[in-house]
């Protein structure tokens, strides 16, 4: 597949660069080879045929448009070609999953797909018809999203029927986990997202580069969850790569070590593990069976001062300084209304805010505030300046231990996930795939 894509990208009569020395030496390829095949990139011909099912260039472009949309239309042009190769690979896997499900008499009805599509449209505050038009305006289609949903739903049901019933977790294993959790009380556990890409010795370098490019796109503002859904080959792809709460010892050594070296919100990888590479995203962390201060529930008042249109940075700084001086005179939440009237400011009350739901810079500020105190002003020239006043705090109780059934379910999910990877690998090996 890769050679076909590279060949199609080279114009007729242009020499390709010499190949690096290595395993290709035995082919005795000329250093000055020329590709004698010019292909029209606008010709919508089949790109691959998977056990008789055609995947067209249109299929690829419409799925690619979903990735672009999920990343705010902010993907460099040079990245698009690499993403097309990866999207083709994902569509092949998706096709194999749907075909295997149908071979086991599992089909997803049109009504189910329509209902799921309507729920997604509702998330965008649109009707299914409006959402369809929106997708078309972005170069995608309702059919592309429904095809992805069909693959996820069919594969999930197939695993529940053919894999999950044969995964056994004993009561002794669950009790062992409970005992370890008690022994580890106070140690850290992590909420982790993973993108897993399988590889072979032959394509390991290419998959490694693909993973690096994915990381770069996410660091530039791309959605980790969107990339996980599109590219991860783990069964957690359907939930945006979310592994849930884990401890480093539950992961392969390389992953567990990498996890302890990054902070919340950071991404690390590609990390070589048996069978491929993983990219990890640290979503959150907490202490085992220990109350997390960030789970405290706050009662807040927000004071907001808007800036007039055309306010310069210097003027904004001056107004922020004045706002700071006024906040220092604040005498608890009872005087917020008087201060707001004096500043012509807006006040918003919220009595149910978890510390961990605030932006990271504000979390540390709120943890150190006493009731009646205000944060330093924050904002921008465009949004104005604001401050949060702490009016009350309900501290969390000690974290409860997961139930026996919850632990058993997690162990079962982990084993189903591993077997699902092997299942898909075997489907690839047995498939008849023609590339065009």
Automatic annotation (TrEMBL):
Key words, A-Z: Chaperone, Isomerase, Periplasm, Rotamase, Signal
Cited InterPro entries: OMP_Chaperone_SurA, PPIase_dom_sf, PPIase_PpiC, SurA_N, Trigger_fact/SurA_dom_sf
Keyword Nucleotide-binding among record annotations: no
Gene3D superfamilies: 3.10.50.40, Porin chaperone SurA, peptide-binding domain
Pfam families: Rotamase, SurA_N
Residue ranges constituting the PpiC domain according to the UniProt record: 187-284
GO molecular function (one): peptidyl-prolyl cis-trans isomerase activity
N-terminal signal peptide: 1-20
Protein name from the UniProt record: Parvulin-like PPIase
